[in-house]
Amino acid sequence: MAFIVFEGLDACGKSTQITQLHHELNRLKQNNLILRDPGTTELGEKIRPLLLGTQGEAPVPRAETLLYQAARVQMVEKNIRPALESGQWVLCDRFYSSTVAFQSFARGLDLKDIENLNHFVAHDCEPDLFIFLDISTEESQRRKELRAQNTGVAQDRMEKESQLFQERVRQGYLYQAQKNPQRWLVLNGNDKPEMILSQILSEIRRRNWLL
């Protein structure tokens, strides 16, 4: 059992890997829960469009940060903590590591303030592993445009941010991975999905979370 967070630029393949790992854990009869940040809870799903919607007034950076944290703490207490206490795996699409990357590195908010908020929100409910699927900002943009064409769903407010913004986000993730390598697994998001899954499973087994 473990709490695993998937991170990366938009369209890096997080959803694909979470789904594949979910199916593999089910095959191995390991109870697991998929969550998304922001979202998941009733409160979180109401906050999500305030953060990602392209209509209406956009929150200023500090308000944006607090909205993310409000949705997150609700998910910690309503979903993550109960799941872990019952012995379930938790697979989360983004977590407080995104706030370091987006709101500190990209928006320019003080890193120490963000880390203090993250500590307050997690309240000793810390991820066991962060998986960062690394792709370039150019590849992210290509995939986002292709996805929008294929689905007809427009890019959200974060996805529409500039390439410079996205590169700062990427550097924020790399900073966290370099600062805490024992809790981060950095993978090439350009590899084939089945190869990425194999690397994830190898890491999980190396940590003795699966036999």
What's the number of extended β-strand segments? 5
Output mean pLDDT.
Answer: 97
Rg, rounded, reads 16 Å
User: SSE order in H/E notation?
Assistant: EHEHHEHHEHHEH
What is the straight-line distance between the termini?
11 Å
Approximate shape: globular
Q: What's the story with the biggest beta sheet?
A: 5 strands, parallel
Compute the number of helices: 8
Into which percentage range does the β-strand content fall?
A: 5-15%
Cross-sheet strand order for the largest sheet: 2-3-1-4-5
Helix fraction bin: 55-70%
Detail the poorly predicted runs.
none
Secondary structure category: alpha/beta
Structure report:
With 211 residues, the chain is of the alpha/beta class. Helix content is 56%, strand content 12%. It is built from eight helices and five strands; from the N terminus they run βαβααβααβααβα. It has helices at 14-27, 42-52, 61-85, 96-106, 111-122, 137-151, 163-179, 193-206, and strands spanning 3-7, 32-36, 89-93, 129-134, 184-188. It has a five-stranded parallel beta sheet with strand order 2-3-1-4-5, sandwiched between helices. Helix 1 (14-27) crosses helix 8 (193-206) and helix 4 runs antiparallel to helix 5. The longest helix is centred in the middle third of the chain and has 25 residues, at 61-85. The radius of gyration is 16 Å and the shape is globular. The termini are close together. The model has no long low-confidence stretch (mean pLDDT 97).
